[in-house]
Amino acid sequence: xxxxxxxxxxxTLLIALERCPAGSVVPIFCDTGxxxxxxxxxxxxxxxxxxxxxxxxKADFAEQLAAxxxxxxxxxxxxxxxRRVPKTDRAGNPVYLRDKAGAVRLFxxxxxxxxxxxxxxxxxxxxxxxxxxxRWSNKAKRRALSVMFPSGNPFLDLCMWKGRFPSxxxxxxxxxxxxxxxxxxxxxxxxxGHRVISWQGVRRDESANRRHAKKSERVGPCLWTFRPIVEWxxxxxxxxxAARGVQPNPLYRQGMTRVGCMxxxxxxxxxxxxxxxxxxxxxxxxxxxxxxxxxxxKRGYSTFMADAHSAADRRQVxxxxxxxxxxxxxxxTRGGRQYDLLQVLDEPAACASAYGLCE
Length: 359
Ligand code: SF4
Fold this sequence. Notes:
CATH superfamily of the domain at 1-61 and 170-257: HUPs
Strand content: 5-15%
Largest sheet: 3 strands, mixed
Bound molecules: iron/sulfur cluster
Order of helices and strands: HEHEHEEEEEEHHHEEEHHHHHH
CATH topology of the domain at 1-61 and 170-257: Rossmann fold
């Protein structure tokens, strides 16, 4: 039973403790190293209130970092990497596709849905750019090797190893820090001769990705998953815990809609604003991490919250997307151009729960 310190895993844990024989529930917590102290304190509270022991699992990337250091130090590759880019002539004018007779070819113009608009237009030819070296430059090597040592923090070590922060499209943090740790723990139990039912606090109304989540599944030999609250709402989850006299994580009363990494790489404007007001020390830490992980990146920078950016100059990209710039962005209205003056005036209230937990 994976416990995150959040409301859903709490309700699932309470159901498991009620239904299963004593001693057969094994709660685990996968520590990412990017959590608020309130989460660790809350786990201690749960252990005392429910009379259980929660096994803490923490990923260790010391081996991977040592291997990466060796790889960077010995890197002597001579290959270049090329990209396809729109072609221009020496004067910088676009080069269009032409037919065999040398006339510019015209192609149907498509709308956003891919339907023809009935108009015709030329199409720019594409060619290969000059390429760039695959090898780490000596300067980048010196920079990376000066900081790439295990810090003992799984999230930071993972990012130093990968040379970047995770993103929505490359969400390796969940995989490396949570899923692999939990699955490894379950496989060890199976190897020791146990049958494992992985209880998961997943609800269908949480997100579009989870709307088809099944209540139970057989994953492999001796391994099943069970999701007892899959049809519940967030309110039912809080009510269930309240009926059993167990407090929810105090972070819900401080404007957080979810409990986990502080902040998460995917967190929205409202949550980032709350963190900036209530937990500025975490943002200071993220700014430090951006500096360290940037030094471990071949291109020299990496930002915690990634976004599309058209600038070619990496200093410009970093200036626009670093954590302090993202906090400024979080104070703006939709579109990111105008300041939301009412939000800027926001004082941290005693309870800012998005779930109406205020009494
Ligand atoms: S997706 Fe967010 S909450 Fe999950 S591990 Fe990554 S940063 Fe943490």
